[in-house]
Predict the structure.
Amino acid sequence: GALTMAADTVAEQRTRRTYPKVGEASAHRGSDGGTNTLARGASAPHHGVWELVVDADPVPEARALESPMRVTFTRPDGTEVTVDGFHEGGRQFRARAYCDAVGTWRWHSESLFSQLTGKSGQFDVGPSELPGKLRIHPDDPYQFVYDSGEWFLHIGDTGYRCLTDTEPEWQAYIDQAVRMGTTKIRAWFCRSRDTVEALLATDRATLNLAYWQEIDRRLTYALHQHPQLQFQLIPYGEDTNELRRYAEDDAASQAIARVAQARWSAFPNVSWCISNDREIVPPGSDLKDRCVPTTTIDHIGQDMAAREPWGTLLTNHQSRWKGYSFCKAPWSDIVTLEDMDQVDGTLIATYRQRCSAPVVNDEDRYEHHRRPQHPRYFFRRLMWASLLSGGHATYGGLRTYEPYDGELRGVQGYFDACVSGKLYFGAHDFRHIHAFFKETGLTLAGWIPDDSRVGENPAKAMCCAKDESVLLYLANPTGAKPETDGASEHPVACKLRLGNGQYTARWFDPRTGLFVQDKIVEGPDAMLTSPGPADWVVLITGPHSQEGE
């Protein structure tokens, strides 16, 4: 099957132009085949979206940045959620509910505008197979889970501009990101290189509604076609000036976050990241270049968290090597980092000690920015090492932070870019990570990193354990510099500390997605030798009763 197929050669890709799939989108679709993930009328699917549409006269332009109405949704158990509505153009106003409970829901509206207040009604939510929103795992604060209870295997991709209206290949990008194994895409609202002025009319008194609607169209497409795929939306992008305006109580700047939440907090495929790659500095610092005070981000975070109706996860992203400044902030759900060469999990381990929250290295090297010499090995190593250190990582390919030019800038389909020679197959082995967890039935919830079992040299060997089971990643690099390391042409050997007794070592080839050897090893000090050269994943299970006992 596609999950276990051997890695395609360049020649095969160029000849066949076929794309290996991690799984059919329909595996997570609702009972209607996925066409009703965003519903109106009498019914909606569990873990989908229900949308209210109300007709009324347009509000005065002077009040265009305000919330036109508030809608309170009452769940079947009587609990209530109140959300902001939004203007969809002309006489149309909308509000959205995330359908997190099965049964009959009721709603009513309030507004300062007479035609939008006093409306009421009800709708039914029925069972579906949709995965739902992303949450922190109830049994492990460092892991994610869908509302459906399914563990979320985090494999991030940097697709900053995939929602931008000037990107022509956005659909191929999203579809092929899923096929390569991506489960999360980082996306911002910038049209230019790094600013979000396109969200507003030139006078900043009204919204550029067509721009918001195109973002909506693309998120809705992804929700229908790939409901398991998560988007981390970055509403302020890298717009330093817009962030500073927020702190000055600029109405247009503050409307950006509020309207974004009104439109998309109900979407199960959305989480929030306030800004990207800003240097976060203490209050009173010299605000040069990309510097933004901690108090500004904290202000936005508090506002978004207080307004957030459906518990959508929230974080912020800051400059490379600058860590994360909001570990103690009540609004922060995720530790988001930008660093480089984190193939030994050291930074993730550091932040696991500081915060009880998922730790994500969301930006490392790209295939075209600070490019590693061996991209396929580097990114495979980065992903496995991050997972085994109890964290998560994100891949970067083309220059998706720059407007599309048909060459290396903007978003394109991953496999298309590999076939045309623009990418170097850096993400080709991510689908095999899915294969491993699908075949073993494992999740990483409750697994504890413990490199002491395998020599305390995480650049070469990493380990995590749960109960009597042990999971190893043996990187087997050619040197000591991640930027230039390749996978060794020789087998790898190591000593692993176990309990007494016999264990089964299952050797998994992360380049092909295949288990290639099961072998009995003896504790307490088991000697492991790989079946072949390059890097390997090893699952140790046991101990087993010995014959005659």
User: Anything to note?
Assistant: The longest strand covers residues 514-533. The two ends are 40 Å apart (CA to CA).
